[in-house]
Amino acid sequence: MSQLFPVSFTIETLSWIIYSTMHLMTYQKPTDNYIILDKTNNVYGIDLFIGETNYLNQGIGTKMLSAVIEYIFEQLQAVKIVIDPDVSNTRANRCYEKCGFVKVKLLTAHQLHEGRHSDCWLMAINRKKSLH
């Protein structure tokens, strides 16, 4: 089950957060980097996007992500949450680390964006290490 939460400010869409249980995700090839997770029961994948640059560097992403992490751990009883940001997205990586995510593994050529492959971090937070 995937859930998308758009967050709006006045009439502009400010951002979105999406999460999904990992056991529902399908893989196109057996070497997909997420296979390194030992178990996917009660593991959720998450992604976050802030579309309006005027709202960057205000702590909005950290606040939104913290609230969703708390919801996933407390209401959905997740044991782990993973995310895979681009290594060059230092702002996002800093936000995820502030929220308790740690870098687990470098995923080489993991993301295809605008015709180019880029490296991503596999980052994770365990329930017991949650800020909440």
Q: How many E-type strands?
A: 6
- The first-to-last residue Cα distance is 24 Å
For this structure, the CATH topology is Aminopeptidase
Number of structurally distinct domains? 1
The coarse silhouette is globular
What is the residue-averaged pLDDT? Answer: 75
> What is the makeup of the main sheet?
6 strands, mixed
CATH class: Alpha Beta
Determine the strand fraction and express it as a percent band.
35-45%
Number of helices: 2
Give a verbal description of the structure.
The protein has 132 residues and is of the alpha+beta class. Helices cover 18% and strands 40% of the residues. It has helices at residues 60-74, 90-98, and strands at residues 2-9, 12-21, 43-50, 80-83, 102-113, 116-126. It has a six-stranded mixed sheet with strand order 1-2-3-4-6-5, covered by helices on one side. The longest helix has 15 residues, at 60-74.
